[in-house]
Amino acid sequence: MASRLTQLTAKAKQASQFVAKSGCDYYKNLMEKNKKYVVNPPTIDKCGELSKQLFYTRLASIPGRYESFWKEADGLKQLLKNKKDLKVEEAGIAAMFGIELYLLFWAGEIVGRGFTITGYKV
């Protein structure tokens, strides 16, 4: 255990030396590559304006998303009406999607109960 701690400490020291040596260069290169996204001057007012723009842009995209959702729902209805024409591959994909959804809800329940399977904390 002590040797493991020594190894971890050495790796942490090595990482911090690397960051100290090349962190500024990395930051400068990153900012240079992405300077088209930086708003000058970077003031609190400008940040507030940008956050409002993002919020209202997202709100404006809701009708398009709503329409896309109903197109997908109509496609699913048509698929269910024509079950005889359903291919094995499409059925397999649908089954895998259903299983994935079930497992995600199951995992969410476990997380919600504090990572206990039975609901009782040990």
From TrEMBL:
Question: What's an example GO BP annotation here?
Answer: proton motive force-driven ATP synthesis
- What GO MF terms are annotated? proton transmembrane transporter activity
Superkingdom of origin: Eukaryota
Alphabetically ordered keywords of this record:
ATP synthesis, CF(0), Hydrogen ion transport, Ion transport, Membrane, Mitochondrion, Transport
Q: Which InterPro entries match?
A: ATP_synth_F0_gsu_mt (IPR006808)
Q: What Gene Ontology cellular component terms go with this record?
A: mitochondrial membrane; proton-transporting ATP synthase complex
Where is it mainly found?
A: mitochondrion
**Cell location:** Mitochondrion membrane
Could you say which protein family the record assigns here? Answer: Belongs to the ATPase g subunit family.
Q: From the Swiss-Prot or TrEMBL record, give the protein name.
A: Mitochondrial ATP synthase g subunit
Q: What is the species listed in this Swiss-Prot or TrEMBL entry?
A: Carex littledalei
